[in-house]
Amino acid sequence: MVTFQDLIDADERVEPRDDMPEAYRTTLIRQIAQHAHSEIIGMQPEGSWITRAPSLKRKAILLAKVQDEAGHGLYLYGAAETLGVAREELLDALHDGRQRYSSIFNYPTPTWADMGAIGWLVDGAAIVNQVPLCRCSYGPYARAMVRICKEESFHQRQGYELLHTLAHGTPEQKSMAQDAVDRWWWPSLMMFGPPDTESTHSAQSMAWKIKRHSNDDLRQRFVDMCVPQAEILGLTLPDPDLRWNAGRGHYDFGEIDWGEFKRVLAGDGPMNRERMAHRKSAHDEGAWVREAARAYAARSAR
Ligand code: ACO
Question: Model-level pTM?
C-alpha cells in the first residue's frame, strides 16, 4: 500500500482534496497562518512612513510595497482556507494570541533609513526563507509563494537601493543608514527561527517537505549573502565575530541573543502591544466593510 510519506518521498504535490494526515494539515495551517499574519502586521512598520516619504517617487514605491504585503496576506489566507479553516477563525486566533506573527515586526521604525534596512535585511531574509517554500509539498502554498517571492525580490532591491543612496549621501545620511543596519541586523537573523537544536517542528516539517532546509542552514545562507552586499554599501554589520572561515566555506558569526527572541515571542518586544492594538482596531473599524460585502454577496446569490 502506498503511504502518504511514500508520495511525499516521490516528490508528489499534495492538493486540497487529497487525503493527508491530520498533523500535516494542522502544521500547514499553523505555518501558513503565521506567515499570513506576518504579512498584514508587517504593513505597520512601513505604513507609518508613507506620509513622510522624502519624495513623490519614494512615496509611490513605499505605497506599492505596503499594498503588495496586503496582497501576500490575501494569497496566504486563501491558501490556508483550502485546508478547511475559515479566515475569520485565523484572524480570531491572531487577535487572541493563539497564533503568532513574525518576531521581526515588533521593532520600531524611528527613521527613514529603516525603510531601507527593512527592504534589504528583512525582505532579504524573507526571500532566503521563502524561495525554498515554492517547492513545498502542499500545492496551494507553493504556488502562492512563487508570486510572493517575485514581489519580495522587488522589495529587497528597493530597500538596497534606498540604503545605497543614503550611504553615499551626506555624512548624516550615511550615519542614519548605519544606525538602521545596526538595529535590524540581529532581529533579521532571528527571523529564521530558533537554532536547529531547539526547533520543535523542523524535523517533521522537513520529512513532509513543507520545509526544505533547516533554520540554521538558511540563516547561514543569509549571512553569507549579506556580507559582500554590506561591503558594496560601504556599511558595516554590527558583529565583531563576523569573519570568513575558509575551512567551512562560510562566514562565522557571533552568538544571537536568544533571550531577546524569547521575550519578543512572549509578547514583550519593543512594539508588540502597539502592533496588536493597531491590528485589532483596524479589524474593528473594518467591520462595516465585511458586513457590506456579506450583504452584497447574499443579494447577488438571491
Ligand atoms: N517569529 C515568531 N515565531 C517564530 C519565529 C519567528 N521569527 N521563528 C520560529 N517561531 C516559532 C514557531 O512558530 C514555533 O512556535 P509554535 O510552535 O508556537 O508555532 C516555535 O517558534 C519553534 O520554531 P520552529 O519549530 O523552528 O518553527 P517552524 O518549523 O514553523 O519554523 C519558520 C519557523 C522558519 C519561521 C517557518 O514557520 C517558516 O518558514 N514560515 C514561513 C515564513 C514566514 O512566516 N515568514 C514571516 C516573516 S517574512 C515576511 O512576512 C516579510
Answer: 0.97
